[in-house]
Amino acid sequence: MAAAKPSTVRPGRLAPWLRALLAGPCAFGLTALIIAVMPFWVPKGSGGVDHIAFPLFFMPAIWAVIFFYAVLDRSLGRVAMVMTAIAVVHLVSLRGILFG
Amino acid sequence: MMLLGWLGLSGALVSAACIAILATIDPRRRGVARARPGLRRLLIAAIFMPGLALGAAGRWSDVLIWVGAAAIFGWAIAALANMRRKRHHSP
Amino acid sequence: MINLKARETRTLVAVHGWAGAVLGLLLYAVIVTGTAAVFANEIKLWSGGLLGTSEPLNQPLNAVLLQLEAQTPEQFREDLSVRAAPSGNVWAFFHTDEIVDGARRERGILYTIGPGGKILSRAEGLGDELAANDPFTALGRFYVDLHVRLHLPNPWGLIVTGILGLAMLVAAVSGILMHRHLFRDIFVLRGRSRLVGLRDLHSVAGTWTLPHAFVLAFTGAYLSFAIAVGLPMLAKIAFKGDVRAMVTTLNGLPVVDPRPAPSGNLDDVLADARRRADAPLLFAGWENRGRADSRITVFPAPRSGDLSASRLIYNGATGELIRERPIVGTEPSLGASLVGLIGPVHFGNFAGWWSRAVWFALGAASAFVTWSGLNLWVRRRADQRGWRALGRVTAWVGGGLPFAMAAAAMAYFLSLPSLTSVFWTPVAFLIAAALALVPALTMRSIERVPPLLFGATGILLLTLPLLRAAVGGPGWGAALAAGQGAVPAMDFLIVLGGIACVLSAVTALRSREPATFGAGSFMQSAE
To answer: How many domains does chain A have?
Structure first.
């Protein structure tokens, strides 16, 4: 009775591989991007080092959040869009930081 | 210096005693319907008391020793509790 | 109770299972070697046979260092590192920095100073190579290197162990989420004769050790990736490749004053540091000796009850304290506190024997969780040929790794008199691993392979204290007189471990378990 929701149903053999790509190499790449930009917005703190220490310390946690999101969200399209959006924001920020 | 480690271990032993009682009355292990929820909640709270006390006293190294030692004791208690059960029930 | 929908639960079960199936054997190796590495310093002391003192940096050193400086070529006198060696002696390394293949390294003369200022040895070369070629610490270093980088070259070894740390993190988190009644089932063990009983063994052990597994996975991944990937990446991006700028940010701005100045008295500095730290001293680094900008950085152990310690910075010319500072930065901060926690929480070295014993037990438990998970995966697929092969490999690694580690220790002692232990320790490990392959490939009943290998491990362990004594290792009386209680303690613990291995092997080999499960393979839900 209920209409199928195309955005949540991805039959075919490609879907698991796409999800593995997103949860694997893409998650690593996005983590690296986030870590790279963090020193420019995390406050330096009383010791002047929090902007370096926090990205390094939270690196495994950031990766884990991205990984489990990529694995558990039913909609592969939504996962791709969210990860792409975050990556684009960080790439634009990085470009601005590195090249003025 | 003399107390280093002993406080954590003592706390773990207190927690282990509560874990042992909890294991004894555990309904899933005994295969019975859930019983004594009030006592179980009290015991669960008591398990964490030593760690909270050590943390409040600022003895963080003893907190870590307590967490680790209590976990090992708990695992051993779970194994022993089931060994005893098998001996009682085996023909 | 964690209530997830069936689809999410199935996904997590698949993630948990496949992460274990693909990476479980390597993870098991990292965990087992890490468990041994908890006692790395004690192993180095016990196996090295050199009896120093219990606090090597708490003795007069200035006079003997001045004598050694006079014997040292002038180009190496710029910097001096003084370290408390695991043996209880002092390693004094006069050195200078040089660029080798684009990387900054230290070259100089390394002296080993025994009690009473006796010079035990002298060696010249690059500092990291001298450390790697020290025959008296080869056994402990072998276990640590196997754990940290699986003996793969940097940075690949660190990247692999970093990935394994993340895999363990995934397994821990997915294990929590997929098991709906994780804590309600914490006392339920239904007997290993059924598949569901094997699952109970795995999940009960995993539940009890969950906090430790989570923390060690997190800190382990940090330690691997921060060095191999994180810091170089941040240096390139945040500091535009200027490593010096990053070092200045992390360690403070160095004062530059090249005017000549007399050197301070190191004994006074170390005595002051000992009094302030109220803990043994581990290391002192003296830079720019003979200049007005000379600095001595002292690294003490944490105070009793604390998890980490501050570093003490002294003026190397006057001996006055400049400041205390945390592991990173010049002032205490949240970032420094977080980073400072990583080491003690991962290594378990914050409370002497107590914390090491607990960390060792938890490491053994985590190894059991990993191995039981692999066994469960293989047993569920016992009717599939490919997975049966993994079963044999699991049996080989499960029992063969401890056996090979014990064999490496045996070879270490046998080769120590000829000072060839750096070569024979890893070679013996590989030979023993190959020998362990024989029962794994030839025995009909795979289940009997691990107990057989554990039994062999136990026998090797029982011979180690005898071998140690036979090659001239110190007796218990001499060790206790030198304040090195670790020697008799390690002998005792190794014998205890050997007996435990033999007894568990005999018990397992006597019990009659079915060679295969008649239940066939089926995917059970997490419930």
So the answer is: 1
